[in-house]
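writing this on my phone so excuse typos. first protein, seq and then structure
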Amino acid sequence: MKFSVHLSTRIQDKSRELSLLNCLTDLALEADASGFGAVSLTEHHLHENQGYQNSLLFACALAPRLKQATIVLATVNPALHHPLRLVESCNLIDQLNGGRLVVVFGPGFKDTDLVAFGRDYAQRNALFEQGIRTVLDIWAYDGKGGPLEFAVGTDRGRLDVAANPSSFRKPRPILARGTFNPAAIPDVAARGWPIFTQMKDPAMARDVMAKYLAALNVSGHDAETLRLAREWTSAGKAVHVADTDEQARSEAEAFFAKNPSGAIARNADDMICGSPETVAREMRAFAAAGVGLMICGFLVDLDNLPRLHRSIRLFKEQVMPSVAAMETASSAA
C-alpha cells in the first residue's frame, strides 16, 4: 500500500495565506523526500477558505520539484472546467511530473463550486458525466478523420488538431473516479479505473474492495490496466501520530476544537489517531483489505508546526516500515 500526504486545509486569517501555501509546499517536498508515494490535492472553490482553490495551478508549481511522488488530483470536477483547458492542464502536469499523475474525477459536494462558475446546479450529474465523456474524446482525438466538436453546458469548442501538449503517459494520464455511491462501483471497474471512495474502517474497506475487485476481475481489461487500478484504488483518512494513544487523542481533539472544518475528518473519532503501533495496526488492516493508496490528511496548524512534523516523522519512521514489512512477509508466504 502506498501513502499520500493530502494537501487540504482551511485558512481563516487572510494575512496568513502565503504562510499556508509555503507550509503546504514544504509538506509536499517533505513527503516526496520521505518516501510517500504520492501528494494529493483537492478542488473546492469558495468553500471554507480552501488554502489554494486551484489544484491544477498548484500541481504545476509542485510537479517540477518532486523527485518520485505521484500527484493525485482528488478530485477534479469536469463540470467546472472547459474540457479542452482541463485536458491541456492535466497533460502539462503529467509532462512536468514525468507521467506520475492520477486524475480523479468527482462531482463535488458543494453547490458553491457550480454556482461560482455559472453552472446549473440542477444539471450537476448530467454535466459531470458529459464532462467525462468529452475529455475522454479529446484525449482520444488525433486530428484525423475530421474535426471534433463538443459542448458541455455552455462551454463549446471545435478541434482540428490534437491537444497540445500531449500527456507524458500515453494515451492519457491515469484516470480514476471518486464516489461515495456503492452503485457506481461496477461502472468504475468496467472502465478499468481506480476507485476513490469512502472506507470508514477496515471492515468497510474489505466489503468495498471485495465488490470492486470482483467487478474488476471480470472487466476484461489487460493486465497493466488491472495493475494500475488495484495500485491506485484509495481510501482517505485524517491521521495523527504521537508517542501514546492518549497524547494523540488529546492533540487531535485540541486541533478540531480550533479547526472545526478539519482535514478530511471533523473529529477524532473519524480519523486514525494514536501511537505509532496503533496507527500501524490500523494501516496494516487497510492494506490487508486491498486498499492500494491511503490518502493521509495530517493535521496542519500553522501555530503548531512542530507537532505536525513530529506526526509525519513518526509515521515515516515507524508506521510506513511496519506496513511494508507486513506486505513483504505476505508476498514471501
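second protein below, same order as before
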Amino acid sequence: MIEILEKLGEVTVLAYVVSSMLVTGMSQRLGDVLAPLKEPRSVIVALSLNFVAAPLLAILLSRTIPLQPAHATGLLLLGAAAGAPFIPKLADVARGNLPYSVAIMLLLMVGSIVFVPVVLPFIVLGVSPDPVRIAEPLIFSMLFPLAIGFALNARLGRVNNILLPILRKLSNLTFLLLLLLLVGLNLQALYETLGSYAIGTYVLFVVAMVLLGYAVGGMDSRKRTVLALASGQRNISVALVVSVESLDDPAVVIMLLVGAVAGLVVLLGVARLLRADE
C-alpha cells in the first residue's frame, strides 16, 4: 500500500508541476513576466538573497545548532537550491504580483542550475553535482510546460479560455492531494526528527529568509510579498537530485522531505497572513 501511495505521490508531483506551469503560462503574458528581469535592482536583490544570504544562513545555523550531520547536510543543500515551482502558487495565495512571481521563479531556477554545481562542492564535502542531471527535471517539467502555456496564450486565445479553467481546477486538486500525500507519507520521518533540532532549525531558516526578503523587497507591497515567499521556498527537487546522485544517505533525504513538508506548511500560513495585511 505504501509503495502505491509513493508512486501516486510521484505522479501527483509531476501532474501538479506540469499543470501549474501550463496555467501560469496561459494566464500571463510573456512580456509582463520578462519585464521585472530588466530591472537590475530586482535581479541583483533576488540573486543576492537566494545565492548569498540563504547559503550563508544555512552554514551559520548548521554550525551553531547541534544538528545531526545528515540533517546539517540537508539544510545546506536546501540553502543552496532556489527557484521552486510552488512560488507562483504561494504568490496566488498571498495575492502577490503573479507575473513577478513567475519571473523570480525562472531567474532562481536558472541561477540554481549554475550555482549549485559550482559552489555546493565548497559547502558540502563529497558533493559533485552534475549540472545536466539538475537541469533535466527543471527543463522538462517546468520550462517546457511554461513555454507551451505562453504559446497558447499568445496564439490560441479562444482555446486558451476553454482550457485554462479546466487546468486551473486540475492544478488546485493536485496541489491539495500533494499536500495530503507529503504529510501522510512522511509522518514517520517527521516523528523520527522530533527528538532532534531538524524541524525547528529549518522553520527558523524559512522564517528568517521570509523576513529578510520582505525587508529588502522594495516599496511595491505585492512584489515584496512575492520576494519574501520565494526566498523562503527552497527548491526541494534540485536538493533531492544532488542528494541521491552524490551522497546516497537516506538520512539526508529524510531531512529534505521534512523540509518540504514543514517549509510548505509554514509558507502557506505566511502567505495567508501577508494577504490579510493587504
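The domain at 2-276 is CATH 1.20.1530.20 (Na+/H+ antiporter like fold). thats all i got for now
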